[in-house]
Every structure is written in structure tokens, then in C-alpha cells.
Amino acid sequence: MKRQLILEDGTVFVGKAFGSENEKVGEVVFNTGMTGYQEILSDPSYCAQIVTLTYPLVGNYGINRDDFESIEPAIHGLIVKEAAIHPSNWRCEESIDDLLKAKGIPGLEGIDTRKLTRLIRKHGTLRGKLCGMDVNVEDVVKQLNSTEEPNDQVKRVSTKDPYHCPGRGHRVVLVDYGAKHGIIQNLISRDCDVIVVPYNTTADEILRLYPDGIMLSNGPGNPVDVPEAIEMIQNLLGKVPIFGICLGHQLLALASGARSAKLTFGHRGSNHPVRELETGKIDITSQNHGYTIEEDSLEDTRLIVTHKAVNDGTVEGVAHLDYPAFSVQYHPEASPGPEDSNHLFTKFIKLIEEHKQSRVRV
């Protein structure tokens, strides 16, 4: 069965349908990772997006029970050059086609994914619709141009109620803006007592949980669409150590007076080099974001830039000069991708311990 991708600029790609028969609209983006399609599919940060994978063959090792980053994927579609029909791996439970059908996610294969990627790189991300061959292209283009992008993605993917992952170490409150399971796993592996709370939890409610540290998770969309998070962070700065990842990084920066801006086509992949300014060390990082913090907006804040992207010089990390708070734009938990920057979780634990000791001395 054929399926088409119609973009808001009128471009049409026709290929073979796989996965669900649902028709979905979303922002069309691309990811340059060679592996990790299961984690990409289940990453809440892709909420309402249609993801194009630039690597030509996808699904060859199937889907397993352990590599999900969320229980219910929020992605709106997947585009690949070729989807493997017969996956082969000792952990394989089902094919990528089986998963997409079960989760109601449409897939498109057999199109020129290089052409689509070059189009996005040239013109920026475009809204698109995965649909059947019986639709009127002009009507779809009109629909795509007349409707606004959603701004409630964080609300969609955040947990509705707090939950507890018990541990015997430091208590960390993880604010869920679309948290990947990899973040929780890294905290648990360091014996943390983790409490996950919804995105709109107030500062007072968080303090009532007596946290030793606060994690601001990754998540989808524009950080300015989460004003309650910005207010919450402002009320917590200086009281508890804070570590922000991806969207959490952007929210920490905005709470400190910085500005964000949308990137032309974003950073999405498991192969992005980042330089730590203090040491000059380069980490290869996993990234998934469409917005960045404007460096010149940091001049009037108490934040300093700690990391920069090697490819385009954008801000990849900040630290607060007065309070125990830092953040990175990339994903130290990887999932998928290299674990070069996993040590940042250990840095966070050390920051918690130093903060506790300073309070005892006072």
C-alpha cells in the first residue's frame, strides 16, 4: 500500500506504507544516528514530530523489551529508506512494523530520505502530513499552513501524578517534562531516592518532598511554552542543587534571565561533538533539540557558558556563578548514543554532597 508525505511548502514524497494506517500531522525533523531507532521512537522529546532517519536501513535488530525510553511513544510518524522485514537479534521480540502498528504510529519507507534531509537543512523544519493517496494535496497544504503548531507537548508527555522510585541515597526530585527512562536509571544506579513529579509542580510542593537535589528533565517543544516551570525554578535557585538536561537546560537559562531561539533544523543524533570550555575536552554526545539558548542573552545573567557545540558554536552547557546549578543541552544519559558525558551525573551527586556539607558548617 502506498502512502505520501505532504509538506507545507507543497513538496510531496510517495513511498510504501508500514506501521499503522493512521494519518498524522507533525513537524518533520531528521536524526543522524546509525542505531538507536527504538529509543528514538520512544523518546518523549519527539512528541508531535515526524522523524526521518538518515541511516538507510532501519529495524534490522528488531524491537526488544529493555530499550524503551517511555511506555507510550509520543512520536507522530517515522520515515525511513528501508524498514527491515526480518529482524535478527537475540533480544528481538518483534519488528519495527509490529511496534508501529501496536502504537498507532504511521511509517513511510522507500522515499529519497537524503533529498528530504537536504530540504530540511536548506529551509528548516517543515510541517507535514503522512496520509493516503486519496487526499487532495492542495487541501492538505492549506491545512498545514492554516493551523498553528501545538504548544502543549510537555503537558501531553509529563506524568499526571507523582511516583516514587525508592533508594537509600540522596533524594532527587525529577521534574518530568518528558523524562527519558535513561535519566531515572542513571540516578537509581547511583543509589538515589527518586521522586518523579509533574511538569507543573510548584516550588513549595517540591520543597515539601525534602529533596537533596533537583533534576530538570528533557522534553519536547518550545521552553517559553512552560512558564510555570520557569517560575518554579526561579523560586528554587539557591535552595537546592539543580541539574538540567536539554529542555531542563533551556528552562534553567530562561529562569536566570536568558533567551531561547529556534534552530533552523535542530540537533538530533548520537554523534554531535561538544567542547568543554574549561578543559578543551571533546565529548561525542547524543542530542535531540530544536531550540537553543542565545549566547549574547547570557551577558546580563549570572550564568556562564561551560560547553559549546563544535559544529555550529551554539551553547551546550551553562553553570550558575552564585548557586549550585548547572545544565547541558545534550543527553549525558545517552540512550541511544555514546556515554562520554555520563560523568555529569556523578558531578551532580558531588554537588549535592558539597551543598549538604556547606549547610552543616553554617
From TrEMBL:
InterPro entries: Anth_synth/Amidotransfase, CarbamoylP_synth_ssu, CarbamoylP_synth_ssu_N, CarbP_synth_ssu_N_sf, Class_I_gatase-like, CPSase_GATase1, GATASE
Keyword rRNA-binding attached: no
Chain segments carrying region CPSase: 1-170
Reactions catalysed: L-glutamine + H2O = L-glutamate + NH4(+); hydrogencarbonate + L-glutamine + 2 ATP + H2O = carbamoyl phosphate + L-glutamate + 2 ADP + phosphate + 2 H(+)
Enzyme Commission designation: 6.3.5.5
SUBUNIT field: Composed of two chains; the small (or glutamine) chain promotes the hydrolysis of glutamine to ammonia, which is used by the large (or ammonia) chain to synthesize carbamoyl phosphate. Tetramer of heterodimers (alpha,beta)4.
Pfam families: CPSase_sm_chain (PF00988), GATase (PF00117)
Function: Small subunit of the glutamine-dependent carbamoyl phosphate synthetase (CPSase). CPSase catalyzes the formation of carbamoyl phosphate from the ammonia moiety of glutamine, carbonate, and phosphate donated by ATP, constituting the first step of 2 biosynthetic pathways, one leading to arginine and/or urea and the other to pyrimidine nucleotides. The small subunit (glutamine amidotransferase) binds and cleaves glutamine to supply the large subunit with the substrate ammonia.
Residues of the active site: C246, H331, E333
Cross-referenced HAMAP family: CPSase_S_chain (MF_01209)
Protein family according to the UniProt entry: Belongs to the CarA family.
Keyword terms of this UniProt record: Amino-acid biosynthesis, Arginine biosynthesis, ATP-binding, Glutamine amidotransferase, Ligase, Nucleotide-binding, Pyrimidine biosynthesis
Pathway: Amino-acid biosynthesis; L-arginine biosynthesis; carbamoyl phosphate from bicarbonate: step 1/1; Pyrimidine metabolism; UMP biosynthesis via de novo pathway; (S)-dihydroorotate from bicarbonate: step 1/3
Name of the featured protein: Carbamoyl phosphate synthase small chain
All copies of domain Carbamoyl-phosphate synthase small subunit N-terminal, residue ranges: 1-131
Enzyme class at the top of the EC tree: ligase
Organism: Alkalihalobacterium chitinilyticum
Binding sites annotated in the UniProt record for L-glutamine: S45, G219, G221, L247, Q250, N288, G290, Y291
Matches recorded under NCBIfam families: CPSaseIIsmall, PRK12838.1
Superkingdom assignment: Bacteria
PANTHER family, sorted: CARBAMOYL-PHOSPHATE SYNTHASE SMALL CHAIN (PTHR43418:SF7), MULTIFUNCTIONAL TRYPTOPHAN BIOSYNTHESIS PROTEIN-RELATED (PTHR43418)
Cited CDD domains: GATase1_CPSase
